[in-house]
DNA sequence: GGAAGCATACTCGGATATACTATGTCCGAGTTGACGTGG
DNA sequence: CCACGTCAACTCGGACATAGTATATCCGAGTATGCTTCC
């Protein structure tokens, strides 16, 4: 799985903690965890295309959450960064060569069906978890995190 | 996900249909679906290392199932081909840069925890499905498939 | 006729190239804010 | 003092390199088979 998924998820939480008042630039979000700024920018663009964050150019510009955290699921972020297509894609090799009959088979490939069911379970688990729940859990573990981020953003003016 | 997973799964079913009497070479299994023989051989080696199939060299050699289909799950094959490590690996970026505190955090990353739970659901779904169940479903859809394979193997002596 | 020895062909197994995607970097278009200037 | 125009800096956005992995290929070690030869 792409490294950018982890970056995007942390960035969403950081955006939520930064306060809704002002946007945060990709460079600041990247510096907070020592990530490559230009590449994180790429991931944030993907989030913007998916409607998860909104971007504003120019000075004082940057990214901010486009909707509240409790309406963003893990699935939304994963789909935005990784793309919408399934991880296991059936190439229908059973139709190739001597193994494939003359006419296409009537039913779907049993293997693809089973793999699809498993992947559906994964997607359901991701869709059942909102970023707000994760934020609450993270704040229970480290209650000072939001304030530290806001202080650092204000100081690094 | 790797293309080889699909090839390995189909090959396992084909090995089950070929009959337990004699081994089938990687070249024959590949020709049945017009796959690159040498590369399929690589995937079968991975299955052999995992104890799913057994290999015998020399003439009349090849691969055969090492244990019955009902004791092989989708998870076994996926783990053998893809490797045992998780798809989402937490790099603990929260500990890097100004965002990371002085001492390591006490609890696990909430994001990694949630992603791990989703992946666990996927793995459970894969482990709950045996290849024998898939074989039964495939035979219901195409009852003539096993016999066609055996006839082709005998003809291509 | 039978058995031993040998050559042979066929198999896996791993070491070696190539292609593609994820990763990382760079520069341009656009916008906002500040500053200077004129009224 | 206020309003307007100009300028400059900062931002995203997409186009351009690079690296790492999945894909594909090739050749060597090993083994069972069949044949030849000798007893």
Q: What report would you give on this structure?
A:
2 copies of one chain form a homodimer. Chain A has 157 residues and is mostly helical. Chain A has one domain: Orthogonal Bundle (Arc Repressor Mutant, subunit A). Chain A has helices at residues 3-17, 26-32, 37-49, 74-82, 110-127, 131-141, 145-155, and strands at 53-56, 62-65. Chain A has a two-stranded antiparallel sheet with strand order 1-2. The longest helix of chain A has 18 residues, at 110-127. The first copy, chain A, is elongated. The two termini of chain A are 35 Å apart. The relative contact order of chain A is 0.16. The model of chain A has no long low-confidence stretch (mean pLDDT 94). The interface between A and B is large, with 54 and 55 residues. Chain A binds a DNA duplex (39 and 39 nucleotides) through helix 3.
């Amino acid at each position: 799985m792409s490294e950018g998924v982890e970056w995007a998820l942390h960035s969403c939480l950081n955006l939520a903690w930064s306060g809704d008042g002002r946007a945060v630039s990709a460079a600041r979000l990247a510096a907070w965890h020592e990530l490559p700024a230009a590449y994180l920018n790429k991931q944030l663009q993907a989030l913007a295309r998916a409607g998860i964050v909104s971007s504003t150019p120019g000075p004082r510009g940057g990214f901010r959450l486009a909707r509240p955290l409790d309406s963003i699921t893990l699935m939304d972020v994963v789909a935005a960064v990784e793309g919408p297509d399934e991880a296991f894609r059936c190439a229908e090799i059973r139709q190739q060569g001597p193994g494939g009959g003359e006419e296409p088979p009537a039913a779907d490939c049993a293997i693809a069906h089973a793999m699809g069911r498993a992947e559906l379970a994964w997607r359901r688990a991701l869709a059942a978890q909102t970023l707000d729940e994760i934020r609450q859990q993270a704040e229970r573990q480290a209650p000072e995190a939001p304030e530290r981020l806001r202080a650092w953003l204000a100081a690094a003016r």
